[in-house]
Amino acid sequence: MQRFKSLVTFAMALLLLAPVSMFASSHREAPITALDRTADITDWYAFVSYDHPDRVTMILNVDPFLEPSNGPNYFPFDPNVLYEMKVDNNRDGVEDVTFQFRFTTTIRLPGVFTGYVGGIAGIPPITALSGPGSEGLSLSQTYTVTMVKNGISTDLTGGRTLYALPSNVGPRTMPNYQALYNQAVYRLGSNVSAFAGTVDDPFFIDLGAAFDSLNFRMGVGGVLKPKVDGDDKHNYAPDAVAGFNVNSIVLEVPITMLTVDGKLHPASDKDAVLGTYGTTSRRKFTVRRSPNPLVTSGAFQQVQREGNPLINELIIGTGSKDKFSMSDPSNDSQFASFFLDPLLAKIFASFGIPVPPAPRTDLLPLVVYQAPICPGCGPKDSGPIADLMRLNTGIPPTPVASQKRLGFLVGDNAGFPNGRRPIDDVVDIASRVVGGILADPVKYGTPIGDGVNLNELGYRNTFPFVQPAHNGRNSHHIGPGQPGCTGQPGGICPVK
Ligand SMILES: [Ca+2]
Ligand SMILES: [Ca+2]
Ligand SMILES: [Ca+2]
């Protein structure tokens, strides 16, 4: 008992030192971006498209916890932020193909007090992003898509003007939001598609339990019972992100646009494997001269990046997070001590969950190129320690009906940590990986999880793979005790 108490004391001491958002995917996790929300990356996804196995889709989500009713300006992208998607195709941890997104804001109705208006005062409802039907769209955003490869910048818009999808204000202003959403999907030719706008946040987590010092509702340390663990169709705990929107940039490109030689490769070939991440950057200098808008100048400085949600959230200590955010992945060996002896594993151990001893070489496949994600990689191909979302493009996508929330851990090899799809339950997967499941699934395969098993709106199975934004007038969140999570008898979610 004394030993147990001292372990608990130890665990609590560790918790006080632990990263602020240890379990959030990446919502408000680093000190700088907690104060700079438009540059705050919440999630990074990269996967082979389920409907087009010859293409890769990348999703960069930014600006966390957007309350759908939060007018009058809602959630424009930041014109002062450079949003980028980066791909390493030759295993040195340095990007070889970069996609850049820049936004421009126009206020078309400067005398009106809100960003969006319709069905009132002679202004028709908003039914289009431009032209007739867009009269009430005062706050209008357009964006550019540029590919940088071998130092050459290529405009991918084909000369078209691309409009970002505003949030779903409500039924009077936007009576057919789905139609607006459809208009924001751009097929740009050469099998390149782009989308940018406010959408349902696809991430799911019981944040309240996680931050109450890992006070999970399913069991001590978050150990799931088989019924809960095996149920990909219901939530047994409240999803704290449910009912919130996020700003999303989605790009789909042919795999051949990304690989080192412009060809497709089988899974056994090392050239099939890409290392991907997303970044936000701002110019180094800002001048504020009232009453004029601020002016920025100078080179771009990276504000944040995300590769694996696991590394950014569960591994890096808060005192190093800003440095990590602004560093390049190819320099991540400076963070090797966090990778090889993670604090979270010690906390799991304090709950009585067996974990492997440090150094944790079983975590290396997430930060270097090696099997199982890169079976074709030899010892000389591993590259430097680098937090990249590694994706083997030779592994075919799993058909939608067969996809599993636990992805790679349960034989759905097209899921995290081989890339990441919206369905992948990264909280549960990452917790189990830290618990040692890659080292020995029998010895260290404790089914750790939070009881939130899916996104409340489900998943879209075609481009852009994100669901339309929640309605500002008629939406709600799913709190403890409210409908939307099911199953747990006598627990916080009512049984249906
Ligand atoms: Ca490279
Ligand atoms: Ca959601
Ligand atoms: Ca979960």
Topology:
Layout: H1 2-17, H2 31-34, E1 41-48, E2 55-66, E3 81-88, E4 97-107, E5 139-149, E6 152-155, E7 162-163, H3 177-183, E8 186-187, E9 193-200, H4 207-211, H5 226-229, E10 245-254, E11 273-287, E12 295-306, H6 309-315, H7 318-326, H8 336-340, H9 343-350, E13 389-392, H10 426-435
Antiparallel strand pairs: 1-2, 2-10, 3-4, 3-11, 4-5, 5-6, 5-7, 8-9, 9-10, 11-12, 11-13
Helix pairs in contact: 1-9
The structure holds calcium ion (CA) (3 copies).
One calcium ion is lined by residues 88, 90, 92, 94, 96.
How would you describe the overall organization of this protein?
The protein is an alpha+beta fold and 496 residues long. The chain has one domain. Helices cover 15% and strands 22% of the residues. Strands 3, 4, 5, 6, 7, 11, 12 and 13 form an eight-stranded antiparallel beta sheet that branches. Strands 1-2-10-9-8 form a five-stranded antiparallel beta sheet, with no helix packed on it. 51% of the residues are buried. One calcium ion binds next to helix 10.
Bound molecules: calcium ion
Mean pLDDT score, rounded? 89
The shape, in one word, is globular
Number of domains: 1
> What kind of sheet is the major sheet?
8 strands, antiparallel
What brief labels describe this structure?
496 residues, 8-stranded antiparallel β-sheet, 22% strand, globular, binds calcium ion
Short characterization:
With 496 residues, this protein is an alpha+beta fold.
